[in-house]
Design a protein that fits this description.
Elements (H helix, E strand, L loop, with lengths): L1 H17 L11 E12 L2 E9 L1 H5 L10 E8 L2 H7 L7 E3 L5 E5 H6 L2 H9 L8 E5 L4 H5 L9 H15 L8 H9 L9
Parallel strand pairs: 1-4, 1-5, 5-6
Antiparallel strand pairs: 1-2, 2-3
């Protein structure tokens, strides 16, 4: 009988420790990022984030008053500094787990963006199933600022377009972070991006 009471007490203690929301994130406290642009501007990095405007996405068709996405951007000496500075302009914490696209500006791509990829791969919050592309003859911020008519969220339009184009037309390839990093560090293999 005493053994059953001890087991029951241990079970209750474990139940108390496991219950609760110690790492909860309320939706009304987060800004969900779906697109990320990284540019080189003079000697600094320019980080542009495309955030879902939840009020417009949830609104009835035809009742929208503003755009379905918001754009925030900041500069810094490093990508991390620019990303941290975004907290001064964004009203909520930027949540990057739902990224669909990362756009690299052409100037940054020419200079090399290994440190940027390292930062993205080490982020504990980001998943790695987003596509990476280079903005040819443009800055990444300009790509993210384009509003699309078919999809409400432009980053989703880019993601879907790359997927569809890859299946229908071989010269286009969708590349995720997990596929890009091994291609960069492998000897005798050249990495390629859309």
């Amino acid at each position: 009988m005493k053994r059953k009471i001890v087991i029951f007490a241990i079970f209750i203690i474990l139940l108390i420790l496991l219950a609760g929301c110690w790492n909860r994130r309320e939706m009304n406290e987060l800004a969900i990022a779906v697109g990320l642009g990284i540019d080189r501007q003079d000697d600094q990095y320019l980080v542009t984030v495309q955030i879902v405007n939840p009020g417009e996405i949830a609104a009835q068709k035809g009742g929208g008053r503003t755009t379905p996405v918001l754009i925030y951007q900041e500069t810094g000496d490093t990508v991390m500094e620019a990303f941290r500075r975004l907290t001064t302009v964004a009203p909520r914490k930027i949540y990057t787990a739902h990224l669909r696209m990362v756009i690299i500006g052409e100037k940054l791509a020419e200079e090399g963006f290994g440190e940027t990829l390292d930062l993205l791969s080490r982020s504990r919050e980001m998943r790695t199933d987003y596509y990476i592309a280079v903005a040819k003859d443009l800055k990444a911020e300009n790509v993210l600022k384009v509003l699309t008519s078919l999809e409400d969220i432009p980053a989703n339009q880019l993601f879907s377009s790359l997927e569809t184009s890859e299946k229908a037309w071989a010269p286009t390839a969708s590349v995720t972070l997990d596929a890009l990093i091994p291609d960069i560090v492998s000897k005798g293999k050249e990495a390629s991006l859309t």
